[in-house]
Sequence to fold (452 residues):
Amino acid sequence: MTGAAKSAARSKSEAKAKIVRAPAFAYRRTAATAPLTLFCEKTNLQALAERHGTPLYVYSSGAIRDRLHAYERAFRLVPHTLCYSVKANSTLEILRQVAGQKAGFDVVSGGELERVLRVKPRSATSIVFSGVGKNVQEMELALKSGILLFNIESASELRALATTARRLKKKASIAIRVNPDVSAVTHPYISTGLHQHKFGVPIPEAQMLYAEAAKESNLKVSGVSVHIGSQITDVGSFKDALERVAELVRELRRAGHDIRYVDAGGGLGIPYQSTGEPFAKQVAAYAKAVLEPLRGLDIHLLLEPGRSIVGPAGVLLTRILYRKTNNSKRFLIVDAAMNDLLRPSLYGAHHEIVPVKHFGARSSGQTLSGDTEVTDVVGPICETGDFLARDRELPVMQEGDLLAILDTGAYGSVLGSNYNTRGRPAEMLVEGARSRIIRRRESVRDQMRLEV
Ligand code: LLP
Fold:
């Protein structure tokens, strides 16, 4: 082998080893002797952070597109609409990216509905409205815009919608969100499908609600919906839930209801602790679990994925302010905090953290070589609960170095707050070698604007 061929072979195998979150986030060398540097698509994240400051959310446009396509492929054989769950990431440009791939939306508030309509004024016919506490103003906005479906979660809500629709002389298409009493393996705060949770209506009660709805001339019974929770990686739970839904669809049709839609909700989990299997394979297994129970029913399927579309498409960049040791306990104090990324504090969630620049001489497999240490990664907020990682083994890093917190595209920026009068981070979208700010960094002035 020539020298050039050898080095090409080496760089090919290195490239394979250095993918952090395939395929959007990977390490590259900017020169043969330069340290490994984290890239998003073809954009150098070190350079981006130097230029725009930290903390900084960075999203890969390609990753969002690829994940939407994977869903489309997995469900291509059945009539379906992908209704991206806006709550996962509602930044306008992210919604534009999703709309650009022809997806619809799942909203849970008038605010989310306004965001979607701002981005795509004529998208109402592919919007579903979920949530246990829709108020009358929100119902009015949704009725006037002509959304596809209201997912109803209680008898009182059904009556409020009927009254509002009558007043506006509109007809509301409805599905009852049933609570299938199926347990899903996930964090208790984000599991929703058991009868002790506030969500949905038990199946026997749902049947009575359908009968009541059918008598209302301003309501149109159109579907059955279900959502059993979020970050579910065992697809068997989806199958259990959809089996109950399929049974209900048959019963409702026997009772004369025109059930066109089944809304299977969202909830497909992502591998936070490893790169896991390819997404296409994961979503294919999910599609099988959802579709098998519905076979032969001739329905239009609605899906409400959020996390699995945008989660792995985003990282949060943060800079190490200080190193600190209390007795033998090590801390990296970084400039991102629980107000920027709440998931570790709220759910004890694990997010992989990697250096943006890595000086290790070699790399093998998914692990970067070099000295490591066990440390907490904490923010500047005055709370013991303000941590991004605890007892984490990381390469030894210095003050001023940058870290990337992975898989933060979903439930990252949206759960942000101004606690400690910290401005919310800027957000950027990467498309190949191009990048642009899609949300400016919030200033103290922005924060005080509404106060008197
Ligand atoms: N549809 C409904 C009715 C939902 O309640 C949710 C999420 C989704 C769809 C989207 O689920 P996904 O595909 O994203 O799992 N803040 C938590 C997650 C809360 C999820 C709430 N509902 C977290 O950071 O893990």
